Amino acid sequence: MAPKTTTILLALAATVTCEAFQPVQLRPGASYSKHGHPMGVALRSTGGDTSGPRPGTAGVYDTAVALGAAKCATPLKTMTTLAFLSGAHIALGAMLAVSTGGSVPALKAQNPGAARALMGSFGLPMGLLMVLGGGGELVTGNMAVCSAAWQAKKASFKQLITNLGVVYAGNLVGSLAVAFIANMAATGIAPGAIAVASGKVAQTFGAAFAKGILCNWLVCMAVWMSTAHKDLASKAAAVFFPISGFIACGFEHSVANMFLLPFGILQGADITVGQAVVKNLIPVTLGNLVGGAIFVGAFYHNAYGK
């Protein structure tokens, strides 16, 4: 190679290297990553480092962690308001499920699989889509994304516990509000509501706990996958199959049960509040925590955490 050509190529290489690794000029008031890059802006470099989500499923993890960190940092007033609304939206979805698949005893007797599929398809997918599409705080989904943010050191343990505690309480209040209003509405679904509520306390602690694990594994996968999409149609597709699946399988969701159990009692189910709490809400909540925080949040952090 001619010396002149070699000199030109070396000059070009030096220029490209300097461009790639030159210091970033910080802007007052902007947010920066640990490398000093503006947050949310993907910057090219020879090392492949970006401050935005990585490509592929690792990027889904990055987005979920960012979502969890934002939820943990949400002001208390906003958090409690959104938690109330999310509990109410899940309750409305649960009521729709009882109104459809839960109110066809003849179909359930002749074809229980079809009755389960009907109950799963109409109801809770609608509820979770309202939470994700309108903005919300749902404790079962937060068990995955907020715990992942904590493991990634994007949120403190105090923030994690505060979020889960406040959101759980807010979801409960929202669910109870819908239960009382739905009872006043007298929509004619008492037999289905009583049957559903009675079945939820007629199981062992271990069975309720295991159903809670499997349920929130699916619910958190729906939330996790939906973080990769911006449009409502794509979020709906991410939500539908896991949510309809857990209902059809007969798994247990603590927030849905915050509505189904009180509503069943108000409609005439022979269940005490103590039975509802001890035989269902406690084991199901613990199972939901394991399913979301461990089988989704911790496992994906182990796979993709930086």
Automatic annotation (TrEMBL):
Gene Ontology terms for molecular function: formate transmembrane transporter activity
Gene3D superfamilies: Glycerol uptake facilitator protein
Spans through the membrane: 83-107, 128-152, 172-196, 208-227, 239-260, 281-300
Catalytic activity: formate(in) + H(+)(in) = formate(out) + H(+)(out); acetate(out) + H(+)(out) = acetate(in) + H(+)(in); pyruvate(out) + H(+)(out) = pyruvate(in) + H(+)(in); (S)-lactate(in) + H(+)(in) = (S)-lactate(out) + H(+)(out)
Chief place of localization: membrane
Signal peptide limits: 1-20
Keyword annotations of the record: Membrane, Signal, Transmembrane, Transmembrane helix
Gene Ontology cellular component annotations, sorted alphabetically: plasma membrane
Family named by the database record: Belongs to the FNT transporter (TC 1.A.16) family.
PANTHER family: FORMATE TRANSPORTER-RELATED (PTHR30520), FORMATE_NITRATE FAMILY TRANSPORTER (EUROFUNG) (PTHR30520:SF6)
Assembly and binders: Homopentamer.
Annotated protein name in UniProt: Uncharacterized protein NAR2
